[in-house]
Amino acid sequence: MKSILAIAFALLSLASITVHAAAPPPRDISPLLTPIIQKRDVPGMAAAVIRNGEIVAVGVAGVRTRGKGDKVAAGDRFHIGSDTKAMTAMLCGILVDEGKLKWGQTLGETFPELQKSMHRQYHAVTLEQLLTHRGGAPGDLTTTGLWGELWKHKGTPTSARRLLLQGVTSKPPEAASGEKYLYSNAGYSIAGHIAETVVGNSWEDLMREKIFRPLGMTTAGFGAPGTRLRNDQPRGHTADGSPVEPGPAADNPVAIGPAGIVHCSIEDWGRFIAANLPSAKTKLVKPETLEKLHTPAPANPKYAMGWIIADNQPWAGGPALTHAGSNTMWFAVAWLAPGKDFAVLVACNQANDEACNDAAIALIVDHFKGERR
User: Fold this and answer.
1) What confidence score (pLDDT) does residue 12 get?
2) pLDDT tens digit string along 134-150?
């Protein structure tokens, strides 16, 4: 009797198990990219399409290094430049949700030890203003010699960002806080330094802990990808097409890390992009925080936190979010349509916006053409 009951219970247990069909592998869109890299004469490219929280299509084309035969692989890492800004803004949103930061947190209250050396107009600049480019931070750090100091700095990335903060805020801002939109890598670097100062961990470690690991972004890192003198990852290329070996000269100074030095595979970048869509499988922030990150500032109706808002996009079913990034040797662009739970992203190992824009358009047209069939 016991054995019969045991079998019966086992059968009931099996019957209660819900069988989920495995998601189909992403469609290969490499054939769409090949003619574009030939037309625009760029070495390599990677792209992905996201729908309903899933990466539904991935493609790569071309070579890692111009003049060499190693082809770009699906897991290869691309530098995404200023597309890092959306990640830094998301990190700040996570810390706001955790009660560690406030959108209205000012430079004066965060860095009381610098109040004497900090120009008084910077005291009231807030985290939110820095993330929406309305904090008055300069767009050009070369005119005062600060850029050269950042290149020569030998300390940690955190100390480099402290040097940047002190150099920027010792002089008057270029505009009063909240009054004018000024696109500024320095402003985002200061925002990242606020986060690392308050929490007590470097911006790099916070990115790993709060974004990369929760999303499974195992290829994500900082600076130019790859190993010097080994063609193990794509190389960035100068405007004339010359490859640049990984090293300090292959990227911007670490001081502006929060503004633009992340690299990752196209699928890992897609995991972050998916976290910005309504059906995100992994939600990094509260819904109201995500909405704030995507809402443009009143003084600049086109820029939110790490995202440019493109109104009236018929293909997107309403406004679209977009951003591009480049350190002059790479180019990356993302387009998100929250209204359709859809996104495309493209990265190239040469700074060619035309190639990436061509690919983004081709992917959008291809996807929605298939949807109509």
Assistant:
1) 30
2) 999 999 999 999 999 99
In the numeric block, which tokens belong to residue 28? 């290969």
Confidence (pLDDT) at 51 = 96
Eight-class DSSP state of 171: S
- Give me 62's structure tokens: 């071309």
What confidence score (pLDDT) does residue 93 get? 98
Question: Would you give the DSSP letter of residue 49?
Answer: E
Helix %, strand %, coil % of the chain (to 5): 40, 20, 40
Other Cβ atoms less than 10 A from the Cβ of 216: the count is 12
In what helix (H) or strand (E) does residue 229 lie, and over which residues does it extend?
none
> Are 340 and 251 contacting, i.e. CB atoms less than 8 angstroms apart?
no
d(CA 90, CA 95): 9
Nearest to 335, CA basis, from 253, 273, 267: 273
- Tokens 């990034």 label which residue? 325
Q: How far apart are CA 196 and CA 205, in angstroms?
A: 9
Where do we find the tokens 């480099």? 160
Tokens of 340: 């359709």
Q: Which of 260, 337, 275 is nearest to 306 (CA)?
A: 260
Please report where in the chains the tokens 């806080």 appear, as a residue: 177
**Tens digits of per-residue pLDDT, 303-362?**
999 999 999 899 999 999 999 999 999 999 999 999 999 999 999 999 999 999 999 999
